[in-house]
Amino acid sequence: MVSLPALLLLAPLSVTQDSALTLHAAAARALEVHPLTQAAAATLAGATASRREARAAWFPQLTTQGSITRFQEPMVVTPIHALDATQFAFDRTLVQGDVRLSWTVFDGGGRSARIRAATAAMGARTAGGDVAEADVLVDVARRYLIARTAGAILAAQEEGLAALTTERDRVRRLVTEGAVARVELLRVEAALAGVVADVVEARANEDVAVRALARTLELPAVAPAALVELRPAQRDMPSREHLLPAVEERSPDLAEALAAVEEARQVRRGAQAQWFPRVDLQGAAIAYGDGDWRFSPEWQVGARIFYPVLLGGQRSAAVARAGAQVDVADARLRQVHRDLAERLDRAIAARTEADARVRALEAVSTHLGEVARIEALALEAGAGVQAEYLRAEADARRARAELARGRATRVLADIELARVTGELSLTWLADNVESVS
Fold it and tell me: Where are the domains of the chain?
């Protein structure tokens, strides 16, 4: 968890253009303020309290009570232990009070089952907190990458706008001098109008993405310039045969499902304990008194065995209901196993595809950028064709935008793979996602 001073250090990022907001800092902030992690923490606190409540059943119970009763006619206000009229005391006011100590010696294992069920529930809520944390990290990473990519696309469109503006000025000068036909000016102005529209769209997309990120971080605003370019750390991806055991060992989704199965089984064990008698030890100190507060104290000790003979099928129904919950938990566990295997396959495929796509787009962007540069030089030298330059510049601009999307997808593919394998955390982000200064 991030300390309050660390959160205060993040506050200037919302207003200062030259402050860098790294993905790690954004993720740390999101874990502190996101409703999912806060709800998970509250749920775990409730489960921890439930476990303490269940464990309390192992301790003796000490209770006390008192009462004052006013009768119409005098009433016996002392204990009657023999038919001796001289020991009887009468008064219209009866004051009673007692202190009782009781302890259940045997209950068929019900208490143990309830404690184990509460412990399993606490484990499930702990794993649920890990699931929520991983979901928040994926969410904030996705929003961060969308905002950063939108900024990169806007920069590419603005570069194209600057290039076409320069070309328009050049052609306009040549048209004025009578060196080229006016159609060339119309052609470049048409291309320029399209780029202007693309810039407006890109700027709007960036604004929406940055506002969404700021909302996730609960900051007034996030300056687009504060976001830094990201790239995954260079490492080889392990094989599926190596990753699948890691999923079984570390996945918080699987840990949550396993704990839910254990909880359901212990609830069933607690229901089965109702078929056994309960044995209690009891002791009490009792006092009877009259309206003048004269008391006759005495004590009691004993043992009690309690067993309901007939409950109309209540116990059988409780055991059957608990057994059904075990079946539900088992089925959900099998489904989690299937889902994790499928998610792992998709994550591996997405990571492989994204890696290959980035390498291809890097080559495409480099080559098309060089083509656009050569066409621009040819136009300056009077040997080029304007239509070819405009086409090359548009292709280079699209390639830069696609490369920005591809790199973001590549980073997110690594993050999603770490999410599936149970590795995703703030430490993992710091070690495996690099900020490009």
Answer: 4-60+109-275+315-436
